[in-house]
Amino acid sequence: MELSVLNIKGEDTGRKVTLSDAVFGLEPNAHAMYLDVKQYLANQRQGTHKSKERNEVAGSTKKIKKQKGTGGARAGSLKSPVFVGGGRVFGPKPRNYSFKLNKKLKSVARLSALSLLARDNKVALVESFTLDAPKTKEFKNILTNLQANGKTLMVLPEGNSNIVLSGRNLPKVKVATVNDLNTYDLLNTDKLVLVEESLNVFENLLSAK
């Protein structure tokens, strides 16, 4: 697959780059992407949810009425789950939701997501650029020139604080380095903007088996 290299004004520079089929030309593996996204979302959960059981609720344990002769069910304590303010039966407890996935499966998932974006023509290649200072308005104009108006993921070869800070306040924009890429972010974007210098690092890293 060939992509035209654009400048920050959105103009064609006249150069074309051929994307590796080993990264952008695979048949997407839907199940691998599902598992990787599931793990990513599970790892975001704090798992600190907790409700009180009957032994943790504050209250008297005095028997509230006699055992027999009332015509109703037996009741031993106001802390019973059947009463308002009582403990909860089988309530949530703190737990760890994370689970393990093999590195090879995660690699297949990322490559599948990239191939899916390339197949849908959602990948743009821009020549390397820098910002003298964090400037959100200038960064937004660059994205507009690149026709990246929806959810946008920009991939840098390495960390650049000025570019990261420029895009941080834009609600539908995420700036990441090659090493920070994950399947969830790739599938949750309308436009993948690759900075030209990141392409070699990008392909070498993700195509490694």
Automatic annotation (TrEMBL):
Keywords: Ribonucleoprotein, Ribosomal protein, RNA-binding, rRNA-binding. It comes from the Bacteria. GO terms for cellular component: ribosome. Pfam families: Ribosomal_L4. Residues 44-77 are annotated as: Disordered. Part of the 50S ribosomal subunit. One of the primary rRNA binding proteins, this protein initially binds near the 5'-end of the 23S rRNA. It is important during the early stages of 50S assembly. It makes multiple contacts with different domains of the 23S rRNA in the assembled 50S subunit and ribosome. Forms part of the polypeptide exit tunnel. Belongs to the universal ribosomal protein uL4 family. This is Large ribosomal subunit protein uL4. It comes from Pontibacter ruber.
